[in-house]
């Protein structure tokens, strides 16, 4: 009879010894090797054994643990048949009807239920294709390993296959499965018994590496992983190269599973950004910098929604008439904590994240509104220059949006000027030319900003509807000290005039520079000598009262 049930560790919770005597008698008659352990409560009994999967709790209603407190299957011990089926237990036994057959069936049922639960748990935590742990199983495993060693000496690797989806699409899912099996086989061949591997997703894997005895082995292993996975695969007679990106994160004392998984994921993304079969080790300093950038991006998005940006305007002086003939609109960000931020502190971030497009539309809309405001106060019409990003220049909504804004503000488009950089103009010249011509038909004109810092072809520039060239401040600022700068500036002005283009010199800060530029025939200047970039209200006062025209006008 001893083969009827597998040994179970039986825990009895009862107020009196009657149940213990009865159960021991029945178990003995069954020939069961399972010991019956009596305890006053589940709290006291839970410390008696570690493997709850091989245990069974028998309890009277008065000693029954709270729901979810006990992980063992529970058999309820009753003095009489219940009116309704008990809830929250695996089975029940009634004192008056207890015999060998009933006890045998109860133990077998509980054992089978336990085996079924264990199988379902295993299936839920195991990848059906490879037999290794899946994401759910790995998270359980990772938490247990971290608790076991306190995070010391463990390194988590997050591995992502490159171009796996293309192979899957080209050869089919069955071939993709065979490819995954080859990847797992290669990884298993590199790992030691103390390491674990799991499949986190279609083409993502986790490697839990034990580096307690040899901290240097992790990077050696990472190099081997990227080398081995970078070698060709043979699937259905086809040779495939897929590569991989591996991120590594060292566990730290007191750190849970979630932060470690996130750090390994960040490192993997950094490895993927470098392209090729590479690995990257998580660095907290780099992550802090990334978080800072992410925080700033979120703040910039909110600033756009809340209208926390503002435009300042730098006047442009005509050297022949001594009058202000244009303005350059420069965006500023009134940050709650960092104060007034200049464009170079957030515009590069906007370029990188794509926010430059909505930011550019905000600038255009605000500049047109301010043009209308100035004209409404009786001030003469001035050219309004707005810096246009190449990303916005490529936006399909630029032309309709600009048409709508011009119509809404009721301004004459001929006074709107877009500043483009040399780099933007020289890229994809056919598209650039078509877009500029379309905008030009609205009346908008164009200037080339920072001229001299790029690689423009004058023949190419002559084919574009450009009205002005702006000489970069780096050339203007060096005219007083370097003859080469003076010669370059003079040559730029002459060449521009030969192309029937006006010239604006940026960064003019003293009378000597102004005199040289006037001597060279420069048309317009802007810089601190004329005025720094100023808010709209201050600009209005400057245009009415602050001009030093007698000083700056030519003789």
TrEMBL record:
EC number per UniProt: 3.1.4.52
Organism: Ectopseudomonas alcaliphila
GGDEF domain boundaries: 152-284
Protein known as: cyclic-guanylate-specific phosphodiesterase
InterPro entries found in the cross-reference section: Cyclic-di-GMP_PDE-like, EAL_dom, EAL_sf, GGDEF_dom, Nucleotide_cyclase, Rev_trsase/Diguanyl_cyclase
Gene Ontology MF annotations: cyclic-guanylate-specific phosphodiesterase activity; nucleotidyltransferase activity
Gene3D superfamilies per the UniProt record, alphabetical: 3.30.70.270, EAL domain
CDD domains (UniProt xref): EAL, GGDEF
